[in-house]
Request: fold
Amino acid sequence: MPPTKEILHDYVDQLDDNQQESLLTFLKSIVPLTGRISIEQYNKELADAELKIEQGHFTTQEALEEEIKNW
Reply:
């Protein structure tokens, strides 16, 4: 069996840009690379996320559940 990193790379390569962005956001939320972030950075990331939602760049739970059926 290939190493875990290689398997992860294979999965990530199969994701479209929006899915990769969602995965990155999720990973950042559970594994901070630099420890705590400033309040300013937190607010910027929050504003960026809200803008993406307003622009329609999100996946609904229902759509994700349908997508999961094809995995």
Q: What stands out?
A: The chain has four helices and no strands.
